[in-house]
From TrEMBL:
Protein name (database record): AB hydrolase-1 domain-containing protein
InterPro entries (alphabetical): AB_hydrolase_1, AB_hydrolase_fold
Pfam families (UniProt xref): Abhydrolase_6
Domain AB hydrolase-1 stretches: 364-632
Organism (species): Methylomonas lenta
């Protein structure tokens, strides 16, 4: 204190204003001492999200090495060098690699992937896959030392799955985006060579060769609520079907949709990976597994789950699907099955499968509504596919039809198509699961569904004519058409029906004469129906059957047959679904008002309600409620209930 006080009161002199060299050194020394006394290690409090993000950084999440890989680089003084000369560092790490050095195997897998991302050199993607496989699958009899709780464990799977899809990517000018080529061949690695063979046994599905594989790793799905991805080993892909059959035609192959995308998984199985890394001569085998045919694979004597992505394959199938464009055309022009949308080598009766016929699985038939298509069932199909308890017991069939045609006509086609399909698949009745069919219909599709389950006797014909049908002089074609459209008995294999937003007593818009008249002018009906109508009208006029003549003034459309005042619809409404075929109703009602007075914008609650339903759920939504969570959960409940009766 005395020093400072004395210094303060000294007279200022010019030489004191300029510090001497000694003073500068003295002050600098004090500064160094002060710095040396401070704590070089500290902590900083961050929020949980930041802390977790820092710990979970990786080549896949932020295009940076994970902390585990950086730790290995730091220990060897290579962290800065990796940024400057990554290929040299990777070569040095590989040269010093020991077979059981799992820390280095992981780092090499991640750093090779990161280098491939930055340089687009495919050899490094394949190297990443090799290192990851060597880490995950030591030779038989050995076990991986990294624990499942270690973040590197799951990250190694992810690196492998991504790396093989990118390492086998197609870069041709005519290739689709994210296309993967699965073929045998010679591939270069940064440290050697890779000879790849192809297991052909997995390269066909349902009797068709698989073609054009698209990696779903790089697909973002929009329009479906949930993405069902089963974690495991392998690159999830969406495969197209080739246009020609394979040499071995499968039962029901003709009923697979022509635009089907098959969820498959590609595996690149490396032989003796850890040992082969020492000499650089790698051998691998490409294996392909369809999601509906395999869920596990044996690797070194141990079962491993296979990664699959059913949702992405479904979304890719519906991306730019022509089905949406055909909805209006199918209503007005009646051209769904004649427009070229369905190739001639596929079934032409409207029944299509989501998968090849699967013995022991119960058919779940989905029937769309007016001016709609099977694509509108996507949300429901995705949810049911994502539920293993459902997908293991049911197989989804879809019915597509020209929805502008009379309900009775379309119902006859549905019944005939189902009957033909059952005969094709199981002519001797050896598969009991096929005899437990569940049919679900939305809107007009619900009316078609009901007509698979009821016994109408002669009620529809008696309304049309006073003359017994057997006495009608008709051409064979006309007789068959009328038999299908006017006489119904329960199909023996239909055991449960579900109605969604179904106009059991008619649709509101169909009651308008303006609407029905306009639709009649715009809808094109099939020539067979027009000719049959004309033939019947001529016959009725000759016999003086005025009742019949009035009915045949013009061919009816589906809108006519959904008119609440249509006698045929009233007859249908008066015939209950028999008690031995449980019927369920899912009814949409918009708004929050009284249910009994409500409607969905197309169908009133009172029209959709039927007394014989064993269950009824009201969904607060518009007419197209088939994709709503409440509807889907009710369908799931009904299917589980159905299983209890089967078992």
């Amino acid at each position: 204190m005395y020093f400072f006080m004395t210094f303060k009161h000294l007279p200022l002199k010019k030489h004191l204003l300029m510090p001497s060299l000694t003073q500068v050194l003295l002050i600098g020394g004090f500064a160094l001492i002060a710095t040396g006394c401070s704590n070089p290690i500290s902590v900083k409090h961050v929020d949980i999200q930041t802390a977790y993000s820092l710990r979970s950084e990786s080549a896949l999440s932020v295009s940076k090495p994970s902390e585990a890989s950086k730790m290995l680089l730091r220990r060897q003084g290579m962290l800065d060098r990796f940024e400057a000369e990554p290929d040299v560092v990777l070569a040095e790490l590989h040269a010093n690699l020991k077979p059981d050095d799992e820390d280095s195997l992981f780092a090499l897998a991640e750093l090779s992937f990161l280098h491939a991302e930055r340089t687009e050199e495919r050899a490094y993607y394949l190297a990443s896959a090799v290192y990851a496989w060597a880490l995950l699958y030591p030779e038989e009899g050995k076990s991986m030392q990294i624990l499942p709780s270690d973040p590197r464990y799951r990250l190694s799977y992810a690196l492998y799955n991504q790396a093989i899809a990118l390492g086998l990517a197609v870069d041709d000018d005519d290739a689709e985006e994210n296309e993967v080529r699965l073929q045998a061949g010679h591939y270069e690695l940064p440290f050697g060579t890779l000879e790849v063979s192809l297991d052909e046994s997995g390269m066909s599905w349902g009797g068709y060769p698989l073609d054009r594989f698209i990696s779903t790793n790089s697909l973002e799905v929009e329009g479906l609520r949930n993405r069902y991805l089963k974690p495991g080993i392998g690159a999830p892909l969406a495969a197209s079907l080739a246009k020609t059959h394979s040499s071995e035609k499968k039962l029901g192959a003709d009923r697979l949709g022509p635009y089907t995308k098959v969820p498959v998984t590609a595996l690149l199985n490396f032989d003796n990976a850890r040992a082969s890394l020492q000499n650089g001569n790698m051998n691998g085998r490409i294996e392909v597994y369809a999601e509906d045919q395999a869920s596990t694979v044996s690797i070194n004597g141990k079962k491993q789950p296979i990664e699959s992505d059913t949702t992405a394959a479904l979304a890719y199938q519906l991306n730019d699907s022509p089905l949406y464009a055909m909805e209006i055309a199918g209503f007005f022009r009646g051209s769904v099955l004649t427009s070229g949308l369905i190739p001639k080598d596929r079934a032409q009766d409207g029944i299509f499968f989501m998968h090849p016929y699967q013995v022991g699985k119960i058919p779940l038939v989905l029937v769309h509504g007016t001016a709609s298509s099977p694509a509108r069932w996507a949300e429901l199909v995705n949810e049911l596919n994502g539920d293993p308890k459902i997908s293991e017991r049911f197989q989804v069939w879809l019915f597509i039809y020209d929805s502008g045609r009379p309900v009775g006509y379309s119902a006859g086609r549905l019944r005939e198509a189902l009957t033909n399909t059952m005969h094709e698949l199981d002519p001797e009745g050896k598969d009991p699961a096929l005899q437990q069919m569940v049919v679900i219909g939305h809107s007009q599709g619900g009316l078609l569904t009901k007509l698979t389950a009821i016994d109408s006797g002669t009620k529809f014909w008696d309304h049309i004519s006073d003359k017994p049908f057997e006495q009608m002089q008709l051409s064979p074609e006309a007789r068959k058409l009328i038999e299908q459209a006017a006489f119904y008995t329960p199909l023996p294999f239909v055991k449960r029906v579900v109605f969604i937003s179904t106009p059991q007593h008619g649709a509101m818009l169909a009651a308008s004469q303006i609407v029905t008249g306009l639709v009649a002018k715009l809808v094109t009906l099939p020539l067979t129906l027009v000719n049959t109508t004309a033939q019947l009208a001529k016959m009725a006029a000759a016999s003086g059957d005025e009742k019949f003549v009035a009915m045949l003034s013009r061919p009816m459309t589906s809108v006519d047959t959904m008119n609440p005042n249509n006698p045929a619809l009233q007859i249908l409404a008066s015939i209950p679904v028999p008690a031995n075929i449980p019927a369920h109703s899912i009814i949409a009602v918009e708004g929050e008002g009284p249910i009994e007075d409500g409607d969905d914008g197309v169908v009133a609650y009172k029209s959709a309600h039927i007394d014989e339903a064993v269950s009824e759920l009201v969904v607060r939504w518009g007419h197209s409620c088939q994709d709503q969570p409440e509807t889907i959960e009710e369908v799931r409940r009904i299917l589980f209930e159905h299983l209890t009766t089967v078992e």
